[in-house]
Amino acid sequence: MIPEDLKYAKSHEWCKVDGDVATVGITHFAQEQLGDLTFVELPEVGDTFEAGAEMGSVESVKAASEIYSPVAGEVVEVNEALADAPEKVNEDPYGAGWMIKFKLAAEPAGLLDAEAYAAVVESEGH
Amino acid sequence: MKTIFEESVPGREGCWPCEGMSEEAYIPKEMLRDGEIGLPSAGELDVVRHFTRLSKRNYGVDGNFYPLGSCTMKYNPKFTEVAAAMPGFTRLHPVLPQLQGAGGLCQGALEVMYETERLLCEITGMHAFTLHPMAGAHGELTGVMLIAAYHKDKGNKKTKIIVPDSAHGTNPASASIAGFDVVSVPSNNGIVDPAALVEVLDDEVAGMMMTCPNTLGLFESNLPEIVRLLHEKDALLYYDGANMNAIMGKMRVGDVGFDVVHLNLHKTLATPHGGGGPGSGPVGVSEKLLPYLPVSRVEKQEDGRFRLNYNHPKSIGYVAPFYGNFGVVLKAYAYILRLGRTGLIRATENAVLSANYIRKRLAGHFEVPFDRICMHEFVATAAPQAEKGVHALDIAKALLDKGYHAPTIYFPLIVPEAIMIEPTETENKATLDEFIDALIEIAERVDTDPASIQAAPVTLPVTRLDETRAARAMELTDDL
User: pTM to 2 decimals?
Assistant: First the structure.
């Protein structure tokens, strides 16, 4: 469950770059560890983030957890559907469960490919 | 069991105080409500039986063992309630010490505050205490504000607070509310690694918040080194004393060099909590933070009388109305005096011994990721069981069927499938053994009959709840 065509952050966010726009969400591993999500808090359109900055949070029946921006840029779209249906992140983390679209302020850097991210997941004891 | 609303029968009612009078005769007409108010109709005996039945379904520490420990529920000796109920205290008005000439009417209460501060200083090795913060997290915020006041007074430009990943979750929240940026430092083998600390330590660090023992129940054995590193940068050390019941009488945080500590009287010194009852989170400071403590400060005059002093120009001001939760402070004072030095040390030793006894007896049945001598609690993992389809949640639910409250699960976050067990100092060996036997039986059933654990609880008034739906679709059923 680690698609080859995406880039990953060690903090378990994924990122798909298309031109100067990056779509961001959390990985299958992240949603599996969190369990059923009950709330997703996302930034607003127009907010800007540095790579690695805290951009929102997710709550599950087990825990609350921060999500970090894997890229630097300005929020151009957020997945409004998650406000009423956080389960989309559990059901389809790389599809309907996407969270934010960024207009990139810089070329993404320091992200992992699928193989390197698989090693991170492995090292966390699975 | 039906709700009181379902038991309602129109026309049934209890004893009415003004039998035979119309409502208008004793309630002004304009105050009377129009129409139905939606409350159930029931006779007095119906109500008594309903709520008595309901109370029998309650689970309390007076009836059963809680592996949740001091974090949520531990037994508090009843004599402290007697002390707090004494009319000489309960009938005092909190404004008395501030009224001209009325100080003589509340000397006893002022003495209790003065003496409690003195005793807490003795227990922790700190220079001074304030009793004002109303609970642990309030104490944390007060403590971080004291750190901020210190740096501001000295003209230091400090923006960051360091918090280890094994700290209490309230620590980063308190630092953030006080206006600091929070920097996390990863733990190594369960405790803070000075080498990792050096990586994030710079001149902008205002302080560091340590929880010791940390949330893994482990003693932070590098404290002197950490204190030295922070003080070299004129950064202050904050000690989250929520787990003080593991070190009380064994180590004084002031002697180690900490600048601020908060205690949870309701966790360490036997005052009730849980269910939102009043807490108390006194904050102790080293000498350099004394000028900034909240007002008022209780003082002993040369003639032996006590008074409140509000004249502290560098104080951070008021953090609570009056003097904190005085009744809770009073219970802690009674507890400290009753147990004395020997008793407090024994309480610590028993808390640590009980946790280690359970940890050792569970060996071979549950994996403990940082398996060494623990303090008052330890964290096991159900990760091996989870691979067989039985999760920490299922094991906790199965304990309910065995007559126990569930332990804390899925915390701390750094241990997957965490099961955190804290027995506290008050339980005897027989109780601990019964609890351990129950856990071992559940662990064995993971291999023989996992479905029975996944289905638990089956013996309680309500069985497995849909926690996800409860959180996603919150709904109040009665529309009054």
Answer: 0.86
